[in-house]
Amino acid sequence: MDLLRSLPLGLYLEQPQTWLHKLDPRVKIAWLMSFLTSYSFANNQWRILLVVLLILFTLMARIPQRVWKEQMGWLLTLTLFVFLLISISPDGLGVQYQPRLPTNLQVLIPAANSNTDIVPAATGATQDYSYILFHKGPVTVTRRSLDLATRVSTILFTVIYSSNLYLLTTAPEEITTAIASLMRPLRRFQVPVTEITLTLTLSLRFIPLVLEEVQNLSRSVMTRAINWKKLGLKGSVKLWLIIAERLLKNLLLRAEQMANAMMVRGFTSPNEHEVKWHELRLQAKDWLAIAILTVFWGARLVLGNLPI
């Protein structure tokens, strides 16, 4: 099991350089926040469109298939499982569903008197609309459960994959530079912008180290061919606690080594040591991405609103 290849969360793809890599990180942050916020109070058609757009961006950027194929496959499998699970679950309405009008039309004819022409229209409308979409045995799919399943599954895919796509095509230094640039006005209010961006940089650099330590420990357990049946529940729990303790010690050791490396290079405090980040400059392709983002939000306001 190679976590660094099968689960590339938070890892930056250095080669090949796609057009997503070359966009300004501030523009990519604006797109990321648009994906993470535009589904709020939106209809299901817009939520599905966000999923389609993320897949199209991945294909149009020509990101290597080995990078996104397995991860997108697992994520699509997870969202499909969530969709099926919620769609067949109770929709939260503790009522027994029944049609608004009786199924026997003869019951309504005496009460209708001379207005019998209204009854067929009402009956036809009742037959066209059905709250229960599927019912067989204990499995019941209603309009509300299907709507809720679509909402949850699309949000799950959008949040996870959009964030990972941003980290995949943006270097940690570019991310911190963009955040520092956007947070620059907060310095007037004595907000430690440099400290925040430095902490974010170290966190992004630490993610691969965590995956590497987990991978090494999992391989060490597999190579020892432990017989879990003989250990029993108590022995298994004790062994996993030992592994977790070892993982924590290794991570703390890595953090100490990183701190020592910074001190050796003369870094004592962001106020005394100038931190030079990536140089930002908006180009023609960035302005084009901003223009497309404006169209994106225009389409969201026109097409994505919930029906009243």
Automatic annotation (TrEMBL):
Pfam families documented for this protein: CbiQ
Predominant localisation class: membrane
Topology within the bilayer: Multi-pass membrane protein
Keywords of the record: Membrane, Transmembrane, Transmembrane helix
InterPro entries associated with the record: ABC/ECF_trnsptr_transmembrane
UniProt key word DNA damage: no
Subcellular location: Membrane
Segments crossing the lipid bilayer: 44-61, 73-90
PANTHER family: PROTEIN ABCI12, CHLOROPLASTIC (PTHR33514:SF13)
Name the UniProt record assigns to this protein: Energy-coupling factor transporter transmembrane protein EcfT
Species per Swiss-Prot/TrEMBL record: Nodularia harveyana UHCC-0300
